[in-house]
Amino acid sequence: MTDKRSIKTNVMVDDGQVVVLGGLIEESIGEDIQKVPLLGDIPLLGNLFRSRSADVTRTNLMVFIHPVILRDSVVTSNYTNSKYNFIRSLQMNADEDGVNLMYNKKHPVLPTLEEFTAKPGEAAVPAAPAAEPAPEPEPQTNLFPDE
Asked: What is the pTM of this model?
């Protein structure tokens, strides 16, 4: 199921000012019944073999904008590079731990900015040499050692 929401508005904003455009609040209620097969179906006595739980989840989604006026190509380039490198560093930090439950799998990571902006058929400007990758850890065989 996919829900689509949209906001149409006009606002006057100063450079660097944060504006809240709108928001959504969703509240969902879930109920779960667990029981031992057959024993949980016995009238009256079945309550001893049954459990019920309820869960209320509330989600708030707010839409903020933070416009920044980029007045020339140098400012635009610096701003773009810093945002790109910030996102790439988050991906690289997440990749250090690997993917849970999947040994030797990596998270996808954006290419370097030089590789990303290189034109097809044109070699990317080499970046600073990367450090050698750390050796792969040995898989754990005993997850619950005796104490």
From this structure: 0.45
